[in-house]
Design a protein that fits this description.
180 residues; alpha+beta; OB fold (Dihydrolipoamide Acetyltransferase, E2P); 4-stranded antiparallel sheet; 4 helices; 8 strands; binds zinc ion; Rep_factor-A_C
Amino acid sequence: MAILDEFQDFCVLECSGCKQKKRTKARKDFECPKCNRKTSLVPRCSFQIDLIDNTATTTASISAELGEKLLSMTVEDIFDITCTKQQSLSLNHVHEMFSNKIFEIQLRKSSWGSSNTTNTTLSILSYMEKQHTPESTTDRTSKKIKPLEISEVQVTATAAAVAPSNAPGKFEPPTPTKNV
Ligand SMILES: [Zn+2]
């Protein structure tokens, strides 16, 4: 797992009423046509993150609290640095946190498009550092999890399949993306 694009915007501004993204970096009150009233813009953390396994790199988006947690910053700080001060975020602590670590990631796949083109985005629902000790005697549910042969970030269908059974299980199973 890595953030390869350090110069992306790490947050977006959205209407505090309808949560619609606005293509602006000026944080001021505006007349929202959808809400039909004057609302304020609030920043929301959102950025692209690259998932790397043995064979491929997949780009997924991560947003809101999960993104803030990953960057160890609040969205107000992120907005202040990237939009108000127009600086790039210092990601050294994030690179360090990711180095030589394996993460189990749950992804949600969303598709849209017309009849001949389909766009697919992956969003991260959860991420968890994978511990190097494969068996835990105290956790009986871990016995159900197959040992992993792949030693890098688990993405797509595999990631969901190996997620602990106590994780939220309501998400539809992601379809494999390797054959896209
Ligand atoms: Zn609105």
